[in-house]
Structures are given as C-alpha cells and as structure tokens.
Amino acid sequence: MNTHVKCKLSLRHILCALAFIFLVLPLHLSAQTSPLADRLPPDTIFYVQWHGKAFLADADKQNHLLQLLEDPDFTPLWQLAAKNFQQNGAKQSAGAKPPEFGDILSLLDGAGVFGVVANPARQGKPVSDGTSSPFGVFLVYDSRGKRELIQKLQASSRGKEASPVSSYDFGGMKVEFQTTGKDTSYTALAADYFLFANQKSVIEDLIARFRSGTPSTSIAQLPEYQSIRKNFDSTAAIEYFFHMPDLNALVPPDQKNLQSVRVMQGLHLDKIHAAAGSISFSGPATRFRGEVLGDTSPGSLFDVAGPSSATFLTQSIAGNNPNFNLSRMNFVSLYKLIRNAVVGNVPPQQAANIKAAEAMAQNFLGMPITDALDLFTGEIASTASFADDGTELRMYAATIQKPSEVLRVVRAVGATMMVAEDSSGDTTFLDLAFPYKDPSTSQQRKKFYYVAVTPQMLLAAPRKAMLREAIERLKSPGPPTGGMFENAEYLQLRAHLPEKLSGLSGSDLAHVPWDKMFATFTSQFEAAMKSQGQTPTDQSWLKLIKPDVVSRHLHMSVSGWWKDSNGIHFDSYVE
User: Fold this and answer.
1) Per residue in 451-471, pLDDT tens?
2) Measured between alpha carbons, how far is 449 from 574 in angstroms, rounded to an integer?
3) DSSP string, 516-545
C-alpha cells in the first residue's frame, strides 16, 4: 500500500523540537478533561497530548525520574543538546537566526496535541489519480504568550529550498502555506491556537474545530475512545490514543487485490479496536500504563498472549541477577495465524512452495512444525547479569514438555555448530560455537554458547556455570527467594500490579554497574567508528554523564502485563 506519511516538512524544526521535549521532559495533563483531544476529528488515527508546564506543579520534588533529569550532573548533556540544536538550525535555516535552546524549551509552558488523521478525501481513490496522501499530520498548540516565539521559529525553520510563504483566506482567517520540494505545509491561528498540518483539508478542518466551541462531531464520540478513556490514569503526565482505522476503506481500489494487502487482511487486524497509554509523574515512581482493546475471540493477534496466573515456572532462574523478564506466549497460535494469512492469500504456486518448505522442515525436525512448537509450553524468560568489564551476560529459558524430543530438535537445528555434549543427572548440556566478526579488530572469531535441556526447561547462556547455577535454583522447593524477590522496593512496586499476570519483569537499577557499562559501550562505539574510518569525538553523551547519577536517583523498575476478555493491559513503575 502506498500509505507512507511524508515527513519532510517546512516546519520540521518545530516538530523535532516538540518531539525532543516530549521524550525528555513530559508534561502534566488531566485525563478527566482533555479539551484538545476532544475536539479532534473522528478520523484521527493517533494522537499524543500534553497540557503545559504549569500542570507539572511540584512533581519534580518527589519523582525520581524528574530529579534525575534535573541533576546538575546532567547539565553537560543539556548543553550538548543545545549546541547541536543551534548548529543544525543554522545549517538548515534560510538565513533567520534560530531561537535559543532555552526558548524552545519554554514551549513546554503551553498545551498541545500532535496527531495523524485519515484523509477522507483520499479514500476510495486509486493511487494513480495523483491526490494527496491518505494520511495527514497535524499539530495544535495553545499559543498564548508564545506567538512571537512561534513566528521566530517559523522564520528560522524555512529551509533554503523552500518557496516563498503564500497565504489565502478561509472563512475570514488567514492560512499561510509553503512548499519544499513536493511537500506543502499549512499554518494558521484560530483563537488562541497555533495550527499546523501538511494537507489543506486537514488545516481547514482544524480551523473550524478550534476557532469556536465544541464541534458537532469529534473523536470523543467514538465508542472505542469512550471505552478506553475510562481506564486512563487521572494523574497522567502524557497520554496517547490509537484508533484502528477501516483498513478496507484506506486501501485504494487499484490495490485491494495486492498480495500484501490480502495478507494483512488475513491477520484480522480489524479485531484490534483501539490502544492507549499514559505516563504519570505524580509520585516517587514514574508509572507507564497501556492497553490494547478489541475482539479477543479466537483468530487474531490476541491469541498470541498466554494465560495469566500468580506464579511463573521460570521465575526461579532470576536468582540474584539485577534483571529478569518472564512471559507466556502461544507459539502455535502465532504460527497458525501467520501461516493461514499467507497461504490463503498468495497465488497457488507460492502456497504450494510454502507447503513444500513445511514438508522439508518436518523431515529435518522429525515432526510437523506445529508439533515442534507445541514442545514449548509457552513460558519464556531471560535474566541478565554483568561480567567484570560491564558486558551483559544474558541467559534465556523456555518451559518444555517431552525433553527427549526437544533434545532431538536442538541437535538437528544446532548440528553444524555443536562441538561437545555431556550429561549430568537428568540434564543434557550442549556446547555450541558459531563464527562472528570482532568489531574492534575485524578478525573472525568463535563465540561459544551453551544449552541445557532439563525435564521441564530449555536454557541457554554464554557461560556454562550460569546454566548450572540456574538448574540448582530450579531444584529448590518453594517460591523463589533472594535477590529482587526479597527487596523491599521490588515488593512495594510489585504490589501495585495484579496478582495474576501473563508477563512480569524487574530491574534492580541500583545494582547495575553503570560505570562499567558506559565504559564498555563507549569503547565498542569508538572501535566501530575507527573501523569505518571515522574519528571518535570527545563529545559522546556517555562521556558527559557521570554513571553514578543514574543509580543515585533510580533504584528499581517493575513491569507486568495481562490479558482479559477485553484485551491486553500493561503497567510499569520506575522508582
């Protein structure tokens, strides 16, 4: 589908600056009243909303993440960002001096919403008719007290290749537009709002919505919007909303029979109705919430999520490691969903080729692919520890049944890499080696990985000792102990999540060797630059941050997700 949204706009600096602000220092909004979002057109597919710096109040006095960003040790990073912003603005500007970085940050004072809307005028028309993109991009910003700064920013953002600014009258309001290459951007002031869009129909619709009272139709009237807003966090600092559009209406008539289009339809994405999320800074912990709602009856991507329960079989392998991630997935459902979507919507010859490949895989594995996937009972996990030099050592695990058949599959898949095999009790260990190119020396080397097959689990790790330690922990009776599971901060954050989950993860941020990680990453990055003939710079952001600043403010992260009859829900806390 030719549905790519063009991003090379004359106001790209405004959008980039606001995107940077959004990512670095989110703002506080009230999820109970959202005047900007409630005025958006019903064809809005996605939006991100914030309400202005005044709503942040005193959150930085207790929120650990905001305190991290305001720490004096972060000042060099902000200075580097300001320097880069000024340099990039000067290079791309047509001559006007770009605003100071501090002035750009002052845009945080105002409320705003950025989004994507489906273009109704484009739907139902073939690609060849030369009309505009099926998607439009827009920005609405409360410009009170900021109009002079916006005008300055507009002037500096006009690229050297842009055409002169033109204007026209729309219902008594002035609309300015400018073309750069094949892209045209439109701006206008409606009451107190600065409006931006990349399509004429979109800017005119926004003018009608924001220069007067509540519009007669809006996104607020969508059942999906009304349903999902009930679960929004009332203390959220950021919220976003995604509404699944009518994909059949968006696809141009001359593309409806394309193979890629039919495959996408075969995935039944229409069963996903809406998604939303929020970020809150109202307490010591930063909270991230999200959910995907829709028709969870069999035959959609919702089938991939495994059931929720109070315990995980793989939880014991976490031990004293500072990071773990546990999830339940249905691999057979995922395979069947993708297979049926592809086989049922490709030409007969391609479908026959897929079935032939499946037959070859069956001969190779000694069983059908679905039977091989069914050997894995759905629970997967990973844990991370760190070597003395700060290198991450990650171990993986998956629950299994019929270990002898799992072992046969592993031997078949890793036959060319296997260098040794031995057993200890009811566990079989396999040593694997595969070639890789050392990024620092560009030399071909061998990297070893070790696999263990137990009666209930398949484990893999870069060190054999890690497997042996994990297997001993699995043999211990009762619930997992030690490490994070006895950490008071972990237990406090875990209590905020439902008892029954389909996924659980935790990170003991206070015990991560940030100094060694930063040093290792910087060394690898510089080696990669040298191998490409580039000179490393002393202005690397990792060199500007003191590693202990992270653990000084952030101590623990806990996340969980679960599935119910309405969809899939996510909740995370970082403190």
Assistant:
1) 999 999 999 999 999 999 999
2) 32
3) HHHHHHHHHHHHHHHHTTPPP-TT-HHHHS
User: 478 — phi, psi (to 5°)?
Assistant: 80, 180
User: What is the torsional sign of CA 481, 482, 484, 487?
Assistant: positive
With vertex at residue 168, the alpha carbon angle to CA 163 and CA 174, rounded to the nearest 5 degrees, is: 110
| pLDDT, tens digit, 9 for 90 and up, residues 295-309 | 999 989 999 999 999
Determine what percent of the chain falls in helix, strand and coil, rounding each to the nearest 5: 40, 30, 30
The CA–CA distances, whole Å, from 463 to 211, 467, 475 equal 64, 7, 20
Closest by alpha carbon to 510, among 537, 493, 494, 490?
Answer: 490
Band of pLDDT at residue 178, cut at 50, 70 and 90: confident
The whole-angstrom separation of Cα 426 and Cα 429 is 10
Tokens of 249: 């209406």
Instruction: From residue 101, give the alpha-carbon distance in Å to each of 19, 92, 334.
Output: 14, 16, 47
Tallying the residues shown for the chain, one arrives at 575
Compute CA 284 distance to the chain's CA centroid, rounded to the nearest angstrom: 23
* Alpha-carbon 296 to chain mean position: 22
Which one-letter amino acid corresponds to residue 94? A
Q: Which residue has the higher pLDDT, 574 or 483?
A: 574
Strand intervals (E) in 310-416: 323-328, 376-386, 392-400
Judge contact between 561 and 569, C-beta under 8 A: yes
Residue 428 has pLDDT above 90, yes or no: yes
pLDDT given at position 92: 62
- Dihedral over Cα of 474, 479, 482, 488: its sign: positive
pLDDT band at 55 (very low <50, low <70, confident <90, very high): low
The C-alpha atoms of residue 277 and residue 293 are separated, in whole angstroms, by 11
pTM, two decimal places: 0.85
> What is the SS3 assignment for 212?
coil
Helices (H), 387-533: 403-413, 464-475, 488-494, 514-531
Tell me: the pLDDT tens digits for 60-110? 788 999 899 889 988 888 888 777 777 776 666 656 676 777 777 777 777
Paired with 11 in beta bridges are: none
Query: Which of 133-137, 487-491, 544-548 tops mean pLDDT?
Result: 487-491
- Tokens matching residue 26: 């989110």
For the chain, count helices (H), then strands (E).
19, 20
Task: Report d(CA 127, CA 133) in Å as an integer.
Answer: 9
Q: Are 203 and 185 in contact (CB under 8 A)?
A: no
Task: Tell me the pLDDT band of 123, cut-offs 50, 70 and 90.
Answer: low
Share of the chain above pLDDT 90, in %: 45
Q: Name, in order, each residue with C-beta under 8 angstroms of 559's C-beta and a sequence gap of 6 or more.
A: 288, 503, 504, 505, 506, 570, 571, 572, 573
Q: Domain coordinates of the chain in residue numbers? A: 12-259, 296-341+367-569
Within a 10 A sphere around the Cβ of 56, how many other Cβ atoms? Answer: 20
Amino acid at 366: G
Q: What's the rounded Cα separation, in Å, for the pair 13 and 97?
A: 13
